[in-house]
Amino acid sequence: MEMNQQHNEGNESFVALMNGVAGDGTATLPNDGEQSMSIPARELFAAIEADSGLLPVNSSNTNEKRKRRLQRLTGKQSEVLEGFFSICGHPDDGQKRHLSETTGLGLDQVKFWFQNKRTQVKTMCWKEENYKLSVENEILRDENRRVKIAHCTAICLTCRNSSVQNQLAVEMERLMGQSEWLQQEIARSNGTPPAANLAFQLNSSADYVFSGQHDQQMIAELAKNAMHALIILAESHVALWFPVPGCSYEVLNKMMAYDQAYPGDNSANAIGFKTEATRAVSMVMMDYKSVVDFLMDPYNYRTFFPEVISGAVTNRIYTWPTSDGYNGVIQLMTVEMMFPSPLVPARKCTFLRYCNVLNEGLVVVIDVSLDDGSIFSKCRKMPSGFLIQSIRPNSCKVTAIEHVLVDDTGVHELYQPCMNGLVFGARRWVATMARQSARMRDVHHNKTAPQVSTKGRKNLMKLADDLLASFAGGITATGGGTWTVVIGAGTEKDIRVAYRRTTEGSSSYNAILSVSASLRLPLPMRKTFDLLRNLTHRCKWDVLVHGSVVKEEVTIARGVGNDDTVTVLHCKRAGREDRGRTMILQNNGYDASGSFMVYSQIDSELMNTMVLSPSDLPPGRGGPSLYPTGFSLLPDVEAAQDSSGIALGEVGGTLMTMGFQIPVKLASGDRMYSRSAASAIRLMTDTIALVKKTLMNEHSGIYGVSPEKREVRVQIKIKNMRRGFIGSDHPASPRIC
């Protein structure tokens, strides 16, 4: 009886405690008081109080532990650490002490922060690598399955299965095309004139080709022959192609295999045309049907490659699309391609585009020009295009071949070594496709920015693409003659100034002024890109944020890797309220075929307007008028040509193009005021000097060696590796940070 009574008293104390906590948040004792409680009940009550944090005196150690667990870095501390990590992920003891003094953290805190950050980055890289390996595994499994099926059906000649017959028919058609191509090779090697149906050969006269451009049968035959040639080039793994060391693309072997197959190309070289032929492969996060839709529609084609294509139009459609899609469609297109540098002129090319479905999930899109490039254009496409193979429902493998005959006499000598492979090569096409598809996927599926709706992210993504296209178009002065070059060739000593009339923006300004210049830096492109993106050093060179604190507000879209993002930055001057803040929309991407960082200032009201859906925009108000500013980077191939085995962009120099656009007012007669051009040139000269000074000083301060000495050390290490010094008894080359 006594034990039961004690047990009941303990239960009553527990119930009273729970009621007190559930009621007003304070624990109340029973009416009997604490003296009436038994020892087990009192111990239970004390344990519950300790667990609930209701003992202010005895739980001091618990509160201290909780405070230590909930400690977070301030925004300033995170900004300093993140900025330094983007440049150097393994600081030495001196750099750790400097960071500890700057941030107010202990040495162990700085040490463990960098360890955790490196682990986080490695985990993200492992996830990306695992995905790529899984996709490659799917490709190998599919190839293995096809080989097994081909092996089974090849020996079963009496099988009457319709699916097997269809596969045999497709295989026979491919073999017949390959046999026809081989017969043409034999005819060329024997000196016999080739067949007339291969109209894409260079020795076909322009009069013959254009006189037959209304012949549907001739156009269809031309497209099929080009398709067979493209398939052979895409599937060939010997002789015709050889890989470029340190790069992820291949160059056509013009000196031996291809010249023997197509001796007619020599006539092009005789009249000043050069051959550029590259092949590259990439994984695209998009189903193959959507990729075909972007390639075949002129508007989508231009928006899918914002920094590559300045204009695309369909001149004529020979075979119209059907309910099945673009299978069998043949159309004549004119495309203007650009590279964001005033030293590289734009290319305009007219060609046939033919889409054909080879198998389920395997599509080929072929480009081939009708003219010979000597009279009607300076760029002629040999059989080029894309081979698209479906891997998963939301991803595909794209093999791009870009093979052109071009007159590049207008290209500056600074960019001449980069023309065959990087500027207009296949690597740039597939890299842009992979970037755009990954961003589109991230906009629709990633929820890392819950404060921005999906419609708002789509609007900002489109605005970022338009910003990049406007930046590239203003530098190259393309767009159907809308830009007028006032002065300058586009070098550091001769800055280019161009303008175009506009009806957008404020009524006091009726034109947009574009200023650009290209120069060479002794820093590798990887280091240059990291230093420009670093928000800690942004206020040292950027005129827009001079004297301000720049922080990343939100990430709108993320592409391939951490260097490919569309972000919104928050720029605020010290001592000002939030209502005076300025927002910056930034679009940046990194690839060996061309990196960029383009941004524009936009106020908070316009940013909120773009976050709204198009149907919610205020009536009578269009999109905001943005004036892009930014950089375009390209690795100096000539300086890095001896760095075999090292990724392109990690060594050598960088070809950097700087550009900005500002609104101006024209004089009478659509002439520009001379003082406007002089002020723009002076501003660009000061900006170039400021950027170069900041990059050189920050590089030397972080890596502890000047760019010139670092480049010499890299060359010494490369020579030692070639001579076999590394790992031998000879002294190794100096250590490079």
UniProtKB/TrEMBL annotation:
Pfam families: Homeodomain, PDF2_C, START. PROSITE patterns: HOMEOBOX_1, HOMEOBOX_2, START. Residues 66-125 bind DNA. It is found in: Nucleus. It comes from the Eukaryota. CDD domains: homeodomain, START_ArGLABRA2_like. GO terms for cellular component: nucleus. The keyword DNA-binding applies. Residues 64-124 form the Homeobox domain. Keywords: Coiled coil, DNA-binding, Homeobox, Nucleus, Transcription, Transcription regulation. Residues 212-442 form the START domain. GO terms for molecular function: DNA binding; DNA-binding transcription factor activity, RNA polymerase II-specific; lipid binding. Belongs to the HD-ZIP homeobox family. Class IV subfamily. This is Homeobox domain-containing protein. It comes from Oryza nivara (Indian wild rice).
